Amino acid sequence: MDGSIVIGLYIFVLALFAGAVLISNVPPTLHTPLMSASNAISGIAILGALVVAGESLTVEAHSVVGLLAVVFATINVVGGYMVTDRMLQMFKKKKH
Fold first, then answer.
1. What is the spatial distance between Cα 19 and Cα 39, in angstroms, rounded to a whole number?
2. CB contact at 8 A, 42 and 73
3. pTM of the prediction?
4. I need a surface site. Which of 4, 60, 80, 95 has the fewest CB within 10 A?
């Protein structure tokens, strides 16, 4: 196995562990602001993925990975805004 693959896998596993610990300790009152911030970060990821996906005119591995990154980041952004909007609807006063 190439050394860079092992290092990348090691960083990925550490990020998974750190993310799980962080998310499990977020209090409910901070959930909505953190969702909005993560949506903004995913929007930046979409821009980066568009750059990678459109780098060449031929279909290569990085083009496919870039396309998948665009698709998944878009799903994350749209779903995140839907969840955030639904949570904010709970705080609005009901009209009678």
1. 16
2. yes
3. 0.53
4. 95
